[in-house]
Write a structure and sequence with these properties.
With 270 residues, the chain is of the alpha+beta class. Helices cover 50% and strands 16% of the residues. It is built from five helices and seven strands. The chain has a five-stranded mixed beta sheet, covered by helices on one side. The chain has a two-stranded antiparallel ribbon with strand order 1-3. A hairpin with a 2-residue loop joins strand 4 and strand 5. The longest helix is centred in the N-terminal third of the chain and has 61 residues. It is extended, with a radius of gyration of 24 Å. 26% of the residues are buried. It binds adenosine-5'-diphosphate (ADP). The site of adenosine-5'-diphosphate has 20 residues, from helix 4 and helix 5.
């Protein structure tokens, strides 16, 4: 009887052990699965511009008797795709580093009003060239503790998107306000908007809506901008949300960042 009870106890202990090990390993398995998907999606995304570059340069090489002017279209395509490739590699590196928490987040005092005005200046010429009204509404100084370069990158991502999906005669506005202990940054455009069913997916890595929707075919995005934006906001303990009343009704991205509250320190090794 003692032997039976002992064996029974052992069997239960082994089963419980397996169960616990399985539960402990599950997050690791999910993280590993996510990494595999990321690498596979990234490889796929890297292949597309490379294929375009190769085929366009191939055409140029078949027409060596023609002048550069006659080959300009192919060279232009290859050049455009090589720029996209370089942005893609940069974005992938940022996300891979943020995943492994090897991306340092500085904790410095950042004047958001100055930052907004600086980014506004960067985009003024582009807006003028495109015939878009670019406005800023930042009535007061707002300071937070954060990483100036990353917050600059965040604004650039949001402005890039707003300008990309907005046409001549339309409007983009950057607003900076406060709400209790939060700095509230919004980038609002009257452009193309996003279909309701796609909104929940815009922060997913590699998600882009059919590029033919954006009338600037050459500017096909990487689908990583908003994923990086969300990571930057998370690293500052903030919140980001995107709103659109649907296609043709413009888009608003709202970012809330705690004022003054330092975020948890991160591993600074790069
Ligand atoms: P991308 O590099 O393609 O811009 P993002 O992650 O920044 O990647 O955005 C994902 C998708 O969300 C875009 O492809 C676009 O379809 C949609 N999107 C983002 N911002 C806007 C906007 N301001 N207006 C319309 N669509 C937008």
């Amino acid at each position: 009887v003692i032997l039976t009870v002992g064996l029974g106890g052992l069997a239960v202990a082994i089963l419980v052990g397996f169960f616990l090990a399985e539960r402990m390993l599950r997050p690791i398995r999910i993280a590993w699965q996510r990494q595999l998907e990321f690498v596979s999606d990234a490889s796929h995304e890297l292949r597309t511009p490379l294929a375009v570059i190769q085929s366009n340069l191939g055409i140029v090489m078949e027409h060596t008797d023609e002048s550069v002017i006659e080959n300009l279209e192919w060279l232009n395509n290859a050049h455009g795709e090589s720029r996209r490739l370089s942005k893609l590699v940069q974005d992938l590196l940022t996300l891979a580093r943020s995943d492994s928490e090897r991306m340092p987040i500085e904790q410095e005092t950042v004047n958001l009003k100055n930052l907004v005005e600086h980014v506004h200046e960067l985009y003024e010429t582009i807006a003028e060239m495109k015939g878009i009204t670019l406005a800023v509404h930042a009535p007061e100084n707002v300071e937070i503790i954060g990483d100036r370069d990353r917050l600059h990158q965040l604004l650039v991502i949001l402005l890039d998107n707003a300008m990309k999906f907005t046409e001549a005669g339309e409007r983009v506005e950057i607003k900076l306000n406060t709400n209790k202990n939060l700095a509230v940054l919004t980038v609002e455009d009257t452009g193309l908007g996003i279909a309701k069913e796609n909104i929940p997916r815009v922060f997913d890595r590699f998600f882009t809506v059919d590029p033919s929707r954006s009338r600037e075919h050459t500017q096909k995005g990487t689908g990583l901008g908003l994923s990086i934006a969300r990571w930057i906001v998370d690293a500052h303990r903030g919140r980001i949300a995107l709103y659109s009343e649907g296609l043709g009704h413009g888009t608003t991205v709202k970012v809330e960042l705690p004022i003054g509250a330092p975020h948890p320190s991160q591993d600074k090794s790069t």
